[in-house]
Amino acid sequence: MAPVSVEGFRVWAPERSRVRVEVGGARHELARDSRGWWRTDITAAPGDDYAFLVDEDEKPLPDPRSRWQPSGVHGPSRRYDHGAFQWTDAGWRGRALPGSVLYELHIGTFTPEGTFDSAITRLDHLVALGIDLVEVLPINAFDGVAGWGYDGVLWGAVHEPYGGPDGFKRFVDACHARGLGVVLDVVYNHLGPSGAYLDRFGPYFKGSNIWGPSLNLDGPHSDEVRGLVIDNALGWLRDFHVDGLRLDAVHALVDARATHLLEELSAEVDALAAGLGRPLTLIAESDLNNARLVTPREAGGTGLHAQWCDDIHHALHVALSGDVSGYYGDFDGALATTLRSAFFHAGTWSSFRKRTHGRPVDVRTTPGHRFLAYLQNHDQIGNRATGDRLTATVSPARALCGAAIVFCSPYTPMLFMGEEWAAATPWQFFASFPDPELAEAVRTGRRREFAEHGWGESEVPDPMSPDTVANSTLDWSEMERPEHASVFETYRALIALRRAHPELADPRLDRFVVESGPGWLLLHRGSLRLAVNLGAEPASVPSPTRGVLLASTGIAATPDGLLLPPDTFAVIVAA
Questions:
Q1: Which of 130, 268, 439, 555 could pair covalently with 551 via S-S, beta carbons 3.0-4.6 A apart?
Q2: What is the pLDDT of residues 277-336, one digit of tens each?
């Protein structure tokens, strides 16, 4: 392949006195410009390795904007040509978030092989289920082979054990061929503890949060730091054809500038969407309970398109499981209230935070599709001591009642891989840092954290053990068993029903009515009703019916409504 060079090599290092690049065993000096960018016009071919040396340090460092790290996060970067991949999705016009159903998966444990190519072999399962958007946990380069992905340090390089940049492109291309959009989880709020060399180049960091160093988004030299984030986000959407990004823990992005980074990113992504001719979606994870994040910029908001809504999860979890430990304690009896308005903590007291928290959602102007609702996700499972799923605590029938609430709500539904068949495999916290001291620190810290909550050391899985990864990998053979297949068929039917009856996906919160009584809920969805009994006794739900569209077994019609046994639901046409 002929050598290629657009601008040669370049790297931002405003406070360094010397920068060199090592290519093919030779080292070359770079020249500095007035903004702190160092450049050279030497050429290199795709596939050539290179690394930078700063000041008089003799240790080569990977490129902070690396596109490819085949030798891991401590090794050299490799030239990568985005134009060489042969895409087949020229006709893809994207997948809008409103009305869609999302499926969250982790490439390393979605299949036993843990690669993009092996994940492709399971995409037809998602099509049969009725999924619209596949949300992929972080895939950027992190130290070690196995991990959740939230300890990434090179944001633009795809984790090599998964299949590298070409492997991810094959995965996205295969999704698009099946009508599936792809949302990628990205982490800009911190870097992992191993291989984070950004501070060797420049003032990328300012302070820290509970996960690691925070980015310098508003201090001196912060323009280029913000540029790294925005360029990285646009690169996933443009060069990898991704349809959306899930932004991890945006409340940890400290930015006091007049235009917050997220607002700037929103404007850039909307501009790119217009140019590409397909919708691009930004979904936040936020602990702020502030709908301004998902309010359009022209209405004075930040302009993100949606956010995860943990309040809905917490209210569902408590209603289904009875667990009121920790932050769940505030959500006892809160399901109906939370369903009506997305946030339970809306300027109300939070006993977990020991202060008031959040602000109300204006249900007249804020559509429900801007909030993702879910029974389970990677955090709410994986951050439990043993990584146990909801169906390890409650019966599949009871969990299906929760699924019916999610799919018949005005919110955007999301499910976590394996949930659709009540997978028996847990999803536990795991990592594989090669540094023995770091590995032991993570292992000890994890056990100490849960010991404070009453768990014995032997009960907490070793996060560094390959067995923990294996135990967390989906067992697809479960789908062959009747008890799991029946759960899958109910999930599939609920999603199909949502698509067949648009009123079930109607996002207008001001038209959403929730009635409740002892143990039961009744959701009004246009001419349809969802009746659910989560109580211990049969419940008479007052809703005259003209027909039952989908129901658990044992439902009986009465002159005034329905008689539901415990742990049952029914979607009906109201008289």
A1: 555
A2: 999 999 999 999 999 999 999 999 999 999 999 999 999 999 999 999 889 999 999 999
What is the assigned CATH class of domain 508-574? mainly beta
Residue 311 labeled ligand binder = yes
3-state secondary structure of 16: coil
Cα 395 from Cα 125, distance rounded (Å): 24
Amino acid symbol at 356: T
Q: How many other β-carbons are positioned within 10 Å of the β-carbon of residue 85?
A: 15
314 is in an annotated binding site: yes
Q: Does the annotation flag 313 for ligand binding?
A: yes
Residue segments in the chain with a per-residue pLDDT below the cut of 50: 1-6
3 state SS of 291? helix
172, 232, 240, 251, 278 from 83: Cα distances, Å? 16, 17, 11, 36, 20
Q: What percent of the chain has pLDDT over 70?
A: 98
Structure tokens, 31: 């020249």
The CB-based long-range contact list for 479-487 (8 Å cut-off, 24+ gap) reads 479/421, 483/396, 483/422, 484/421, 484/422, 484/423, 485/421, 486/396, 487/396, 487/399, 487/400, 487/420, 487/421, 487/422
Q: Residues spanned by CATH 3.20.20.80 within the chain?
A: 102-500
Contact 75, 52 (CB under 8 A): no
The matching CATH number, chosen from 3.30.420.40, 3.40.190.10, 3.20.20.80, 3.40.50.920, for 102-500 is: 3.20.20.80
Q: Report pLDDT digits (tens) over 257-270.
A: 999 999 999 999 99
Closest CA to 203 of 54, 14, 18, 367: 14
Q: What is the pTM of this model?
A: 0.96
Where do you find CATH 2.60.40.1180 in the chain? Answer: 508-574
